[in-house]
């Protein structure tokens, strides 16, 4: 299985994972293949043993179509799953693609397509567990795309608004 | 109203989540029958199965529906828990009118404690200093004028309840109107009451509160203090007792002040008096929480007094068989509020499916929660999942115990703030007990800037693969998501094998 990940700091990791048997997994990355052994524990975590016999504890905190939050040993990793068609989509310097950073529902939308917006202007309100969070435009520009409407439920990592920079 | 001879027979718990379970446990210990309610979103709520009867309602704030359940189930008392209807005077009154004992203070006391202006007046009469503030504000314009008079920064607070909901600090005039509207909307969603008021925002204060219990015969006791200074957006995160470094003479003065103000409003049952304390240990009355509080177990652990059981006993007219001199603090206790919040993304709350859940168990550790493997945490309600508590001989032992407990605790499926606690419990200022309600900002910055040791990329790829939902392999516990859901929905197995009744 081919995987494209993006870390919190923006680093991209692309590689593939192949399951050989119940306990053996082959990971290909940067032209090199490594073999790992995976053991299940009854405590909600996995033990991963690398080729040198070093063991790591893996716990899952969250997993969705868009992201994975995992704990390896004592470090937490927030990994975004990058789909092939999304590669480069949010890379362009004159486009701001705003994604939801949590699951919730769209309470209010203040803008519509082709609206001119200023940096800091409220675009929409998201509600989750009675908390209202206002999403603001990070740049001056024009609303190129609105992926949501009032009342829609959104998942963490889902696209909300695309702003094209300009005045 | 007074309860018939022989005491309360059947208690309706008008709440959800961990506090519903806490009340069920106390009631069962006292040999009472228990009735619970749940909404369609809470269809998987375990409290349904831990009670003798459970009824579906559409909203925990709907007084008519709850009283209807009380009538149908022939409950003779209602425990409101915290939040929702717990501090609503009209609810307490409506219970009284129907001949149902409200487990809490009288409607008159609720009216006085709930009206922040009256509460402050009573505190002043009792000789306790208060923070400069306003009455309820009726419009943003009026609020802005008042804020100018008090002087920025000011704190917007909900008149209808506490817990940080509807609360916003405001540092300048230009953000006032926006924050006012937000606070008011949030207050309405949380308490059904949009009213807000203003207070002067005291810099770098500690938040220290005193637990009081009083019977209906005029006997008052304090159960010492809790320090709840570690807060994020005015929501408590960690609470402990005793308060680190609090001078003994200040502690005694605060505890006495708390009892004095409660006497002024003829308060009975359990309640808390909140103070903010400045850097010179001057304390100011803020408000009365006329309910059992989220953090009550901290006090239970250090004093050995079961507050919820006491609430029920007081409500059935019993006298407190305990004297002030008998109440002692033993060792130290601390509570971590485990929330469904993402610490790596400004603590945004979100619900979801818990694939796997495991609670820790070691000497002195207590878990007040409501999760199980396979539960779906609804996004409509408060994100509190679990209160993880520890009691030890001293503060350092408690911190160590909590760190060990956090290693055992597993919540797989929803983002939660456990990683943040692992960080805070090792944070120098926290370990030394030097925390005020503003400390969080710095702690969060340092939390964000933690250097994560880089790992070999192949391990991250494998980790992401193995943690995939779409992976045909179950992650670790032998159940795929849909399997767990199916088992729970279809199963006739219940926690206590009791009848589950659906209200028409």
Characterize the structure shown:
The complex is a heterodimer of chains A (167) and B (504). In chain A, 28% of the residues are buried. Chain A has strands at 2-7, 12-21, 24-29, 32-40, 45-49, 55-63, 67-72, 75-81, 95-99, 104-109, 116-117, 122-128, 131-136, 141-146, 153-154, 159-165. In chain A, strands 1-2-3-4-5-6-7-8 form an eight-stranded antiparallel barrel. Chain A has a four-stranded antiparallel sheet with strand order 9-16-14-11, with no helix packed on it. A four-stranded antiparallel sheet of chain A has the order 13-12-10-15, with no helix packed on it. With 167 residues, chain A is mainly beta. Chain A has two domains: 2-81, no CATH class; 89-165, Beta Barrel (OB fold (Dihydrolipoamide Acetyltransferase, E2P)), CATH 2.40.50. In chain A, 0% of the residues lie in helices and 59% in strands. With 504 residues, chain B is an alpha+beta fold. Chain B has three domains: 10-111, 3-Layer(aba) Sandwich (Rossmann fold); 132-200, Dna Ligase, domain 1 (2-Layer Sandwich), CATH 3.30.1490.20; 206-448, ATP-grasp fold, B domain (D-amino Acid Aminotransferase, Chain A, domain 1, 2-Layer Sandwich). Chain B has helices spanning 17-29, 47-50, 63-72, 89-97, 107-114, 116-125, 140-150, 176-191, 248-264, 296-303, 307-315, 395-408, 418-424, 428-431, 439-448, 457-466, 481-490, and strands at residues 10-13, 33-38, 53-56, 77-79, 101-102, 133-137, 154-158, 168-170, 196-200, 206-214, 220-232, 235-241, 269-277, 283-289, 332-339, 341-342, 348-349, 352-353, 356-358, 365-369, 376-377, 384-392, 410-412. Chain B has an eight-stranded antiparallel sheet with strand order 14-13-10-11-12-15-22-20, with helices on both faces. In chain B, strands 3-2-1-4-5 form a five-stranded parallel sheet, with helices on both faces. In chain B, strand 11 and strand 12 (235-241) form a beta hairpin. The longest helix of chain B has 17 residues, at 248-264. Chain B is globular, with a radius of gyration of 23 Å. The interface between A and B is large, with 60 and 56 residues.
């Amino acid at each position: 299985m081919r995987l494209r990940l993006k870390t919190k700091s923006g680093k991209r990791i692309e590689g593939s994972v192949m399951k050989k048997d119940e306990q053996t997994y082959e990971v290909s990355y940067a032209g090199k293949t490594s073999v790992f052994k995976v053991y299940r524990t009854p405590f909600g975590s996995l033990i991963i043993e690398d080729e040198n016999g070093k063991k790591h504890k893996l716990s899952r905190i969250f997993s969705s179509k868009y992201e994975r939050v995992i704990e390896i040993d004592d470090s937490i990793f927030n990994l975004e799953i990058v789909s092939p068609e999304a590669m480069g989509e949010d890379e362009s310097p004159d486009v701001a693609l705003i994604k939801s950073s949590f699951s919730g529902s769209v309470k209010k939308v203040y803008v519509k397509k082709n609206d001119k917006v200023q940096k800091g202007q409220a675009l929409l309100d998201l509600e989750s567990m009675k908390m209202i969070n206002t999403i603001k435009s990070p740049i001056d520009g024009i609303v190129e795309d609105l992926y949501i409407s009032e009342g829609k439920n959104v998942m963490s990592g889902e696209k909300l608004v695309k702003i094209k920079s300009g005045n | 109203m007074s309860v018939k001879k022989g005491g309360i027979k059947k208690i309706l718990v008008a709440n959800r989540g961990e506090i519903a379970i806490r009340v069920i446990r106390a009631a069962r210990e006292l040999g009472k029958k228990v009735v619970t309610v749940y909404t369609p979103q809470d269809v998987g709520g375990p409290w349904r199965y831990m009670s003798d009867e459970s009824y579906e309602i559409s909203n925990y704030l709907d007084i008519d529906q709850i009283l209807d359940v009380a009538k149908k189930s022939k409950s003779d008392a209602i425990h409101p828990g915290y939040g929702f209807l717990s501090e609503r005077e009209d609810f307490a009154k409506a219970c009284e009118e129907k001949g149902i004992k409200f487990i809490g203070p009288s409607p008159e006391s609720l009216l006085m404690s709930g009206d922040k202006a009256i509460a402050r007046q009573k505190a002043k009469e009792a000789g306790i200093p208060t923070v400069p503030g306003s009455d309820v504000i009726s419009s943003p314009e009026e609020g802005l004028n008042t804020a100018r008079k008090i002087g920025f920064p000011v704190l917007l607070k909900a008149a209808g309840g506490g817990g940080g909901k509807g609360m916003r600090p405001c540092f300048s005039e230009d953000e006032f109107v926006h924050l006012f509207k937000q606070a008011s909307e949030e207050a309405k969603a949380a308490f059904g009451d949009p009213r807000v008021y203003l207070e002067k925002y005291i810099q770098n204060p500690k938040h220290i509160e005193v637990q009081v219990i009083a019977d209906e015969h005029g006997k008052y006791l304090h159960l010492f203090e809790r320090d709840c200074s570690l807060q994020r957006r005015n929501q408590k995160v960690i609470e402990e007792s005793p308060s680190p470094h609090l001078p003994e003479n200040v502690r005694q003065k605060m505890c006495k002040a708390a009892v004095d103000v409660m006497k002024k409003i003829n308060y009975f049952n359990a309640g808390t008096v909140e103070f903010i304390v400045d850097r010179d240990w001057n304390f100011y009355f803020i408000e009365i929480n006329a309910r059992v509080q989220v953090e009550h177990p901290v006090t239970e652990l250090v004093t050995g007094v079961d507050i919820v059981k006491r609430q029920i006993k007081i409500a059935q007219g019993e006298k407190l068989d305990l004297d002030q001199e008998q109440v002692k603090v033993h060792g130290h206790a601390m509570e971590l509020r485990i929330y469904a919040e993402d610490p790596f993304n400004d603590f945004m709350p979100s619900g979801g499916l818990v694939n796997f859940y495991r609670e820790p168990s070691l000497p002195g550790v207590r878990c007040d929660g409501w999760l199980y493997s396979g539960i779906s945490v609804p996004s409509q309600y408060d994100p509190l999942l679990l209160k993880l508590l520890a009691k030890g001989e001293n503060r350092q032992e408690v911190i160590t115990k909590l760190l060990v407990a956090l290693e055992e605790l597993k919540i797989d499926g929803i983002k939660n703030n456990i990683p943040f606690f692992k960080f805070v419990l090792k944070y120098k200022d926290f370990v030394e007990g030097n925390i005020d309600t503003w400390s969080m900002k710095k702690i969060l910055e340092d939390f964000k800037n933690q250097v994560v040791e880089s790992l070999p990329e192949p391990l991250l790829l494998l980790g992401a693969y193995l943690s995939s939902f779409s992976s045909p392999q179950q992650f670790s516990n032998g159940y795929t998501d849909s399997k767990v859901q199916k088992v729970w929905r279809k199963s006739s197995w219940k926690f206590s094998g009791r009848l589950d009744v659906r209200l028409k």
